[in-house]
Design goal:
By secondary structure, the chain is of the alpha+beta class. Helix content is about 40%, strand content about 15%. Strands 25-24-27-28-29-30-23-26 form an 8-stranded antiparallel beta sheet, with no helix packed on it. Strand 3 and strand 4 form a beta hairpin. Helix 13 packs across helix 14, helix 34 (about 1030-1045) packs parallel to helix 37 (about 1095-1105) and helix 36 packs parallel to helix 38 (about 1110-1130). The longest helix is centred in the middle third of the chain and has 29 residues, at about 895-925. It is elongated, with a radius of gyration of 56 Å. The relative contact order is 0.04.
Length: about 2050
């Protein structure tokens, strides 16, 4: 049974649980679970990650934690009972984890790794804290590290700053806002410095300067590698100051044996010393580490004697130095030891030994020898900081190694009390000794002893150096043969204090013989006592001691014998009566010098101090002694502090009147000495003395008397130094006074209490007197007052010992009140006064409520004054925050309410005033720049804001009530409300608190909300009815709006955990404020009208806050506004206008969402339903919601990285909406300009021009003045329209739409003319003329058009389930367009069929795109039917200003005729009508309606033949009137294509189909059309006759055989038509071959040939003709029989629109019949989308009358993209795969189709290309990416998104392309079953609706028989650079050579090869795959290739013409090697304007 748990409430998962049982809760390791119930080893509960999911889990999988449970029951709160720091680390790490991963995603790798490192550190620190093994200090330290890392991470991850106290997060409810602010500040600083604020917890005001941190240098000897000594060595280390030339530290001694190891085995690895107490000043000295090496052994190192020496001597060896300045920087930064190597130098002359280190430092290299090896001493150094205790704590390892503490020679900067020390440093300086009759000088050794008064040698009182034990005697080192040795050897004598008096030193001198025995002979001694007679110790100076003679047998058993003698000169002078008959005789010529330095806390060398301490010995000298105390050094005084104080008070007791003032002065001197930082640490000694040892029970009377006397004199005395000193000593004087009185009171049971009280009262009167003096004229008095004020707050604690809190508070109030209250005292005095007040507030006294009651008014009074004057704001704010801190901490007391009342009265108003002025200053940045940095301003603002918030937070409703009642008038209340609301608004607007201070910001919001709730009743009550005040109300509403929109309150942006936390604590404050706002709005009543329309924008902003409740409350206000305006004005135009305006700007700022749109409509419509103005209201709301829809889409698009195209679409949509639905002209114009800018960015210049025209149309040619708007200046309407016209004309020019620019030019010209502005008129007319020239001369590409359907609900609503027609970019084919569209809608799926989608697709939640090409149907047919209009002009009208577009789909009606498909092949023609013609303001427009018609096979045939006739007529006309010069290849090819329709039977198939009796009888209604078809066929025969006549005139002699063949074929064709067409002459004979069409509407640039040789693949070789004809062998080529078909004759040619082609321009197959094995392949190639002619470049030859030139051979291949099979649902499988044998025809569907020259000619005429200038000898080659699928491998279908972008870059087209036309449509259908007879399909040259570019005048004919390559200017300007592509992408592999130019010019033949040869050549060789590309070729220049290609089948490319004069002599012609040579078409040069009829008659 499940029972609720009692204590088992929270646990951590320690093993992952999969939750595989019923009701199981899946848990991961580390999750925290809250447990609700338990049952038999199972718990039920939930994970804190997902509190809503509850389930069961095994108890054993959870580790339980202790927890605190509040509010037990279903809604209980459980908090783990653990260290808050641990809890914080856990929650923070969980929060970081998510953000940390995001860093990686956003490529912030550096921060990613840093955060990871910090997280790992935190986990480790958390583990340490959890272990529970840390000491308190250690855990403090760990917490410090934790908080630093937490704060660092929070800052870098953009999380909130956590305010802390002692490393723990604080609860803002329990501290004042001011304290919270300070904690935020300190947390911020700690983050910035990455150190904690806990180190220096200094008081805020006037604390004495901090104690300097001492440094300690750790020296560790690693090794000494001088093995050459071979003896024991002593190494001494010390610190030496070069500037002062003295050693500043004791010595550290290391003793090594002869092997270099420590002599004491325990010392291994422990040879280290700590040089302690180095001050900052020491670190700046010129310090060196000096190391002296002394060896112990033979006298001379190179002594030849064997064996160990009998006597050991200490002898100098060498010295090493290391400059601290070199290493200090390094070791100061490092936290560990660093090694250094010191070279050991040896001394050249032992006389110089004492200064060897100086010589080394000064580099006096003659005095020392550099060692031969670079090794020496290896030491490591480390610098430590802090007092000794801290260093021991932080570095326990160092101290565990037994480090030697090596002190400074003197006292450190800070002498710590209890630091007992008694060291005498003795230096053996030098000696002068006699030779003593010896020939050589002595080797002298000095032995030192310390002897006590009884003659006993003191044991262990000599220390040679730290690191070694102390010894009873010391032997100096020996200098060889030196009678005046200088040792300078320092030893320390740590003599016990009790043995010091009476002890003396004895120095014995011995000569060390180097003879065999090696004895040491005593020859003299010296001595000196340590203390003088007067009790002072040996002074710190050099002492010259007498040397007494003695011999080696002297025993010194009776020391008294020599102690009576003088030890030195001073001694001799002081006791002259010395008996001459002494045992020891002084050696007059011998002297011995020593110097001493005493570092003792117990002994003094100061005579004056001794005199004071022993004053009773000379009572008469007391006055003098006291006077001289001032001259005793501070060190001496603090050493004997207690003794001196005892002495002073005993003198005072002895004679109060006589000595009182002097004792007082001495006491003041000592007290002030302790204020010095060096002795500051002795204050506790003084305190301890007062508490424990002070016994002057009567002293208080005298002290009070003297103090009062000093104060009273301050008004008169000029020099006030002693008075100021007394003031500074006030604190300790009071301590003495109070302690003295307590002692007296204790002794006398409280006698004289009244006298004491009155004396203190009098003393306070004197204090008040001093403070009340006017100090403006006396600087000294200012200092006195300042000293008094500084010391004053320190005496409160002492007074509280004797007086009640109330009494002390009265004293203090009187004193503070006596200060001048005006702020005139001068700044420094103000500061002191305020600091004194601040310290009063910080004192213990102020924490008592009863004292606050007394003191608060006076404190507030002073603050009030300063705030009024805006002076010393920082200190005032500090005082205030202290007050609030105290009040908050004691807020339980009832007294607090009164205090808050007092503060509200005194402060609230002035605080608001101060804040307003500070804020206005900080806003105007110039402010305070002179005085303070901006940071200070921010800090002051923050301080005052926190003070204001603290006060408001303390106020209750009673306080607010009193506050409101206290206002005398409504004017005052109004002023107050405006102030407080203004401050609040500024708090919202200016970011007073940084963004990451979320705790602070939320608390601020909470306080503002509460205050607003208190203020609103007053506002409502006082300013609603008659006294309505707009300003106050407006201020209130503005605040509410700003409040609700605050970033810190937008909970949606927070993480769930954080959101829950905020909601739990404060709720959603936005909602509360919204309720407040709504109720205030309702209270307005009739006054609401004042806020319309002003408040609409702000309120709209509120409703856009993403919080449903806020929206529900606020949206109805708009109904209210509409209603009030309707009542007042009869409409709500203002609301409407403002709402729309603001909605636009707010939504574009990123506010609002789809839910808002729905809610807005819903709520308002519901409200409006009941109104009388319902209709207008509903329509308005509907249009606003629709506007919102558009705005949201527009915003989302602009915000995202959407494509330019999409953005343009959204903008157009919005713009149209503003124009059509909401008549908002200004918004409309804004969006016009936004749209124009987008078009310009996308380089859609034509669209940009049309867009600006919209604005142009709004303007009139008037002189009305227009105000400045957008980027337009203030100007007249006429000027603006003129400027716009010029801009639009300019854009039309850039977009090459000159026809649209011309009317504007005329309009401008008319304006200029009417104003007689002839200069401008001339300019505009010239521009117009230039545009006409451009129309005639410049090359323009015809764009492709695509129909796009957007289906599915995922599309933006303005595209959703609509279809558009889009104008493609230049050179953009269907595949590229489809790729672009799929790129713009990456989620979309491409539909594979052209059928209208069903309802399921329209309503599905996805995106479907349906794309196919469409053909424009121009409206301006008139121009297109004019014969004389150049094709360049017609071309423009074919594709511009078109609203109707169509596409065709072939299908079979009824049974399909197997013999002639054309009989049953119908065309379904869909025409799309757009909303606007293209081009316009967008590249695409929506389809307005669809029209569907079906075209019968006969109608299609009529149309095809008619177009072909028109095409032939135009071409022949151009040749006839010399518009096309020279080269007649084009004419030859066209005629050949029509006459010899060998491939598909020509018009014979039409005869079969439609002239059949059966057909005529069964279709009587078609009689007229059949007659029409007959007439057209007859006309065609006539036209061909004219064409042949023209051809005969122009044909080249070498081409005569071709002409003859054409004549023959023409006769045959005529005869074949005779049977069916009466009226034709029956000439010619032979089998009917039908008529071969030229394939499709072709521009000359479209003709390209690729003839490629390659090994036959498994399918065999293929011949692919330009439009996709595929055959394998030449036999197939000839086997193609005519077969009736209609589709390829269709003039509209719109291929199955479901086919989306992936090649640049689709390949078409058009024959109705083909060998079975190719049927499905043909079907593949056939079903391709429509596309129209595209001008493109190819290569021309100019045939002139000069000598015959070389033919250029252009061989290249083209990319063929994978095609999609037809999936037309209307066709059966049988229809798709043909079974009837039929011959092939070339489809007439695309203009890039390639006509045949003759049935026998396999070579293909290449169309003309603008020639290019090439350097002589260079070749032009063309490279294409080959993609030749073998046809049988064509894929069955193309996956939805696998379209391959064509790798080919487009080439600008030739400007000289002849045009082709086809009844307004440029392409012909490839039928699904056959492509029919192409013979009369669209011809290459244009008729009525020609759609290529107008011909340009050309000058590229060859003069003087030479031929050069020239380049058209447009081609030069082409942005497309030649591109070179590599090997093939698909199918068969290409040979590695890729594409090569043919052989060197030398191998070319002079004359052109005859066409006849070509025929022969083609007959002789088998065909290999021949690719006729559609794309414009790409040219790239190459270096000349090798003379002959290595393999014949690799030769491809084109051979440029060479200048015949410069060409090399003709060489033998290379074998053709199966290469078919292309014939090159000729250029055209001029256009004649003679009619076609004229041509006929001429012929």
């Amino acid at each position: 049974m499940w029972t609720p748990t009692e204590d088992e409430k929270i646990g951590v998962v320690i093993c992952t649980f999969r939750g595989s049982v019923a009701q199981g809760l899946a848990l991961e390791v580390g999750e925290t679970v809250q447990i609700l119930e338990k049952c038999e080893g199972w718990y039920r509960g939930f994970s804190t990650r997902k509190p809503n999911v509850k389930g069961v889990f095994p108890a054993s999988y959870v580790h339980l934690k202790k927890a605190v449970i509040t509010n037990r029951g279903p809604h209980e709160t459980v908090v783990p009972l653990e260290d808050p720091t641990l809890t914080e680390v856990s929650s923070t790490l969980q929060e970081w984890a998510l953000l940390w991963k995001q860093l990686y995603v956003k490529h912030k790798v550096d921060l990613f790794y840093k955060v990871r490192h910090v997280m790992m550190e935190l986990i480790d620190l958390r583990r340490q804290l959890l272990s529970g093994h840390l000491t308190q200090d250690q855990s403090r330290d760990v917490k410090r590290h934790v908080t630093v890392r937490l704060d660092w991470g929070n800052e870098h991850l953009g999380l909130d700053l956590v305010p802390r106290k002692e490393f723990d997060m604080v609860d803002e409810d329990h501290i004042s806002v001011s304290d919270l602010y300070k904690m935020h500040l300190s947390s911020r600083h700690s983050v910035q410095q990455s150190t904690t604020q806990g180190d220096g917890t200094r008081q805020r005001h006037g604390e004495p300067c901090r104690v300097p941190v001492p440094h300690h240098l750790l020296v560790n000897l690693k090794s000494f590698t001088y093995n050459s000594i071979g003896e024991d060595t002593d190494i001494f280390f010390s610190l030496y100051d070069l500037r002062e030339a003295k050693t500043i530290s004791e010595k550290f001694l290391v003793r090594l044996n002869k092997n270099g190891a420590p002599r004491n085995p325990e010392k291994v690895e422990r040879l280290c010393a700590l040089f302690t107490d180095l001050s900052n000043k020491d670190m700046k000295r010129d310090l060196y580490i000096v190391s002296h090496v002394i060896r112990t052994g033979r006298m001379l190192l190179n002594d030849s004697k064997k064996g160990p020496p009998l006597v050991q001597y200490r002898r100098p060896y060498g010295c090493a130095v290391l400059a601290m300045s070199d290493v200090l920087q390094t070791i100061a930064e490092l936290k560990e030891e660093k090694d250094f190597v010191l070279k050991v130098y040896t001394c050249n002359n032992e006389n110089e030994w004492y200064q060897i280190h100086e010589n080394i430092i000064r580099k006096s290299s003659t005095k020392y020898t550099v060692p031969s090896t670079s090794y020496g001493l290896i030491i490591s150094l480390q610098l430590l900081r802090g007092d000794m205790d801290q260093v021991r704590r932080e570095n326990p390892l160092i101290f565990s190694r037994g480090v030697s503490m090596t002190r400074k020679l003197g006292f450190p900067d800070v002498i710590m009390p209890g630091d007992v020390r008694n060291d005498l440093y003795l230096t053996l300086e030098r000696g002068d000794f006699e030779r003593g009759g010896k020939s050589v000088q002595k080797n002298i050794e000095v032995t030192v002893y310390v002897l006590y008064a009884d003659g006993e040698i003191l044991k262990d009182c000599i220390s040679v150096g730290s690191g070694e034990p102390q010894v009873p005697e010391h032997r100096s080192f020996v200098l060889y043969h030196n009678n005046s040795p200088r040792w300078s050897e320092v030893i320390k004598l740590p003599i016990p204090i009790d043995r010091f008096r009476g002890s003396h030193l004895r120095f014995e001198f011995r000569h060390c013989s180097t003879k065999d025995k090696g004895e040491k002979k005593l020859f003299g001694f010296s001595f000196t006592p340590l203390m003088r007679e007067d009790g002072t110790t040996l002074s710190d100076e050099s002492h010259d001691l007498y040397v007494y003679k003695c011999d080696e047998n002297t025993t010194f058993s009776n020391h008294a014998l020599y102690l009576g003698m003088p030890c030195c000169k001073e001694d001799f002078n002081s006791c002259p009566s010395i008996p001459s008959s002494l045992i020891f005789q002084r050696s007059a010529k011998e002297n011995f010098w020593i110097s001493t330095q005493l570092s003792s806390t117990k002994l003094t060398q100061n005579v004056d101090l001794l005199a004071l301490l022993k004053w009773k010995a000379h009572p008469e000298r007391v006055m003098d002694i006291l006077g001289r105390l001032r001259h005793v050094s501070g060190e001496e005084i603090v050493k004997f502090l207690q003794d001196i104080l005892d002495t002073l008070f005993s003198i005072l007791d002895d004679n109060t009147d006589k000595y009182g003032p002097l004792v007082f002065q001495s006491l003041v001197f000592i007290i002030n000495l302790l204020r010095d930082s060096k002795y500051y640490h002795f204050r506790p000694v003084m305190d301890m003395y007062i508490q424990k040892h002070f016994a002057g029970a009567l002293a208080y009377k005298e002290l009070i008397r003297c103090l009062k006397w000093y104060m009273d004199r301050s008004a008169e005395v000029v020099r006030q130094d002693h008075i100021q000193e007394a003031m500074r000593a006030l604190e300790y004087l009071f301590k003495f006074i109070i302690q003295s009185r307590i002692l007296y009171s204790r002794a006398t049971c409280g006698m004289e209490e009244e006298q004491f009280r009155s004396s203190v009262q009098e003393l306070f009167q004197s204090i008040r007197f001093v403070l009340s003096l006017d100090s403006r004229n006396s600087e000294t008095l200012i200092f006195t007052q300042a000293a008094l004020l500084n010391s004053f707050p320190a005496i409160f604690d002492e007074l509280l010992q004797m007086f009640t809190v109330q009494e002390v508070a009265e004293f203090v109030r009187g004193t503070l009140g006596s200060m001048p209250s005006t702020v005139h005292m001068g700044q420094s005095m103000d500061v002191v006064k305020l600091q004194s007040i601040a310290r009063t507030v910080d004192s213990r006294l102020f924490s008592f409520p009863e004292s606050r009651r007394v003191l608060l008014p006076v404190v507030l009074h002073h603050i009030h004054l300063h705030l009024r004057q805006q002076k010393e704001l920082l200190i005032c704010s500090g005082i205030l925050s202290s007050i609030f801190s105290i009040i908050k901490s004691s807020s339980m007391d009832t007294s607090v309410q009164e205090e808050v009342e007092v503060m509200v009265e005194s402060l609230l108003d002035v605080l608001l005033q101060t804040l307003l002025s500070i804020m206005s200053k900080s806003q105007s940045q110039e402010a305070v720049r002179g005085q303070r940095c901006p940071q200070c301003t921010a800090e002051i603002t923050g301080e005052y804001v926190s003070c204001l918030l603290s006060l408001l937070r303390q106020m209750t409703d009673i306080h607010f009530q009193h506050l409101m009642e206290n206002f005398q008038s409504k004017e005052e209340l109004k002023e107050f409300l405006l102030k407080i609301l203004s401050v609040f608004r500024n708090l919202m607007k200016l970011s007073i608190f940084p963004r990451d201070w979320n705790v602070m910001r939320l608390l601020t919001s909470n306080i503002i909300l509460t205050t607003a709730q208190y203020l609103s009743p007053a506002l409502h009550k006082n300013f609603t009815e008659a006294e309505f005040d707009f300003k106050v109300w407006n201020s209130y509403f503005s605040l509410a709006v700003l409040y609700i929109n605050q970033p810190s309150l937008q909970l949606e942006s927070l993480s769930p955990a954080k959101r829950k936390k905020v909601l739990d604590k404060y709720g959603d404050m936005r909602v509360m404020m919204t309720y407040e706002l709504f109720s205030m709005w309702q209270n307005l009543g009739e006054n609401k009208i004042h806020f319309i329309p002003g408040m609409i924008g702000p309120f709209l902003g509120v409703t856009l806050v993403p919080q449903v409740e806020v929206r529900n409350i606020m949206i109805p206000i708009f109904h209210d506004m509409m209603d009030w305006e309707q009542r007042k004005n009869g409409n709500f135009k203002q609301v409407e206008a403002e709402l729309i305006d603001k909605l636009d700007s707010l939504v574009s700022e990123g506010k609002g969402d789809e839910n808002y749109r729905e809610l807005f409509g819903l709520l308002l419509l519901e409200k409006i339903e009941q109104e009388t103005w319902r209709e207008t209201g509903v329509s308005f709301v509907t249009s606003v919601t629709r506007l919102m829809e558009r705005l949201l889409d527009y915003r989302d698009c602009m915000k995202g990285d959407e494509t330019e195209n999409k953005k343009i679409g959204y903008t157009v949509n919005l713009l149209n909406f503003y124009k059509s639905e909401i008549n908002k002209e200004e918004m409309y114009i804004r969006y016009i300009h936004k749209l124009c800018d987008m078009h310009l960015q996308a380089e859609n210049y034509t669209e940009a021009a049309f867009t600006l025209l919209l604005y142009w149309e709004l303007l009139n040619w008037e002189e009305k003045l227009l105000k400045e708007f957008l980027h337009y200046p203030t100007q007249t309407e006429w000027s603006r329209k003129e400027a716009l016209s010029r801009k639009v004309i300019h854009y039309f020019n850039k977009g090459k739409c000159w026809e649209f620019g011309v009317p504007l030019c005329r309009d401008l010209a008319f304006q200029y003319e009417s104003l007689y502005d002839y200069q401008s008129l001339s300019w505009i007319r010239k521009m117009e003329a230039a545009y006409y020239d451009n129309i005639m001369e410049q090359q323009r590409l015809e764009p492709e058009f695509f129909r796009v359907g957007f289906y599915g609900r995922k599309f933006p609503f303005f595209l959703r389930n609509k279809e558009f027609v889009c104008r493609g970019h230049d050179y953009e084919r269907l595949e590229a367009f489809q790729q672009r569209m799929l790129g713009e809608f990456p989620q979309a799926i491409a539909m594979q069929h052209p059928n209208q989608p069903d309802e399921a697709i329209l309503q599905c939640d996805s995106q479907y795109l349906q794309i196919y090409a469409v053909t424009p149907v121009p409206d301006s047919v008139g121009v297109l039917q004019m014969d004389r209009v150049p094709d360049r002009i017609k071309s423009f009208y074919r594709v511009n200003n078109v609203r109707r577009y169509r596409y065709d789909r072939p299908f079979h009606k009824g049974p399909k005729d197997r013999d002639n498909e054309f009989k049953s092949l119908w065309i379904e023609r869909t025409t799309l009508v757009l909303t606007h013609p293209l081009p316009g303001i967008s590249r695409w427009f929506e389809v307005e309606k669809r029209e569907l018609v079906e075209v019968s096979p006969l109608e299609n045939a009529v149309s095809v033949v008619e177009n072909k006739n028109q095409e032939l007529r135009t071409l022949i006309s151009q040749y006839q009137h010399k518009q096309l010069h020279g080269n007649i290849n084009l004419l030859s090819m066209t005629l050949n294509g029509v006459i010899d329709a060998a491939v598909n039977g020509g018009i014979a198939r039409y005869q079969e189909a439609f002239f059949d009796k059966e057909y005529i009888t069964s279709h009587p209604e078609d009689t007229e059309k059949i007659t029409q078809l007959k007439d057209l066929m007859q006309e065609q025969v006539h036209v061909l006759g004219v064409g042949l006549a023209v051809h005969e005139k122009l044909v080249h002699p070498e081409m005569r055989p071709l002409h003859k063949k054409l004549i023959d074929q023409f006769q045959m064709m005529r005869s074949s038509l005779c049977h069916g067409l009466p009226g034709l002459e029956k000439t010619g004979s032979g089998a009917s071959r039908g008529i071969l069409t030229p394939h499709g509407p072709m521009s000359p640039e479209s003709f390209k040939l690729l003839h490629r040789h390659s090994e036959s693949g498994p399918v065999g070789s293929l011949l692919i003709l330009a439009d996709g004809v595929v055959m394998e062998h030449p036999e197939d080529f000839y086997r193609m029989q005519a077969s009736p078909s209609s589709s390829s004759l269709s003039s509209t040619h719109s291929a199955p629109s479901q086919m989306i082609n992936s090649a640049h321009s689709g390949f078409r197959v058009g024959s109705p019949s083909l060998p079975d094995k190719y049927r499905h392949n043909r079907e593949m190639l056939m079903l391709l989308p429509p596309h129209r002619d595209r001008p493109s470049s190819a290569v021309y030859t100019n045939v002139s009358d000069g000598p015959p030139t070389n033919l250029q051979r252009a061989l290249f291949h083209q990319v063929i993209g994978p095609c999609k099979p037809c999936s037309d649902p209307n066709l059966s499988v049988a229809e798709k795969v043909l079974t009837t044998p039929s011959s092939w025809s070339l489809d007439s569907g695309t203009r890039e189709a390639l006509p045949f020259l003759s049935a026998h000619v396999g070579g293909v005429m290449a169309p003309p290309v603008p020639p290019r200038n090439l350097p002589h000898g260079q070749h032009l080659s063309m490279h294409f990416d080959a993609f030749h699928h073998q046809v049988s491998d064509l894929p069955p279908a193309l996956p939805a998104r696998s379209l391959r972008k064509s790798p080919l870059h487009p080439i600008p087209a030739s400007p000289t392309s002849p045009q082709s036309v086809l009844d307004g449509s440029s392409s012909t259908l490839s039928g699904s079953a056959s492509s029919g007879v192409s013979s009369l399909g669209e011809s290459t040259f244009g008729g009525a609706t020609s759609s290529s570019d107008p011909p340009a005048s050309r000058t590229d004919t060859l003069e003087s028989g030479s031929q050069a390559w020239t380049t058209d200017p447009q081609d030069l300007d082409s942005p497309y650079q030649p591109v070179k592509y590599g090997a093939s992408e698909g199918g068969a592999a290409l040979p590695p050579a890729g594409v090569q130019t043919l052989s060197h010019p030398a191998q070319q033949q002079d004359g052109p090869p005859h066409l006849y040869h070509l025929h022969q050549h083609l007959h002789q060789h088998h065909f290999h795959p021949l690719y006729l590309p559609h794309n414009p070729p790409l040219y790239s220049l190459h270096e000349p290739p090798p003379a002959l290609p290595p393999k014949p089948y690799l030769r491809e490319g084109c051979i440029p013409e060479e200048d015949p004069q410069s060409a090399p002599p003709p060489g033998p012609r290379p074998t053709p090697r199966k290469i078919s040579q292309p014939l090159i078409a000729a250029t055209k040069e001029e256009q004649a304007k003679v009619a076609w009829e004229h041509g006929v008659s001429a012929e």
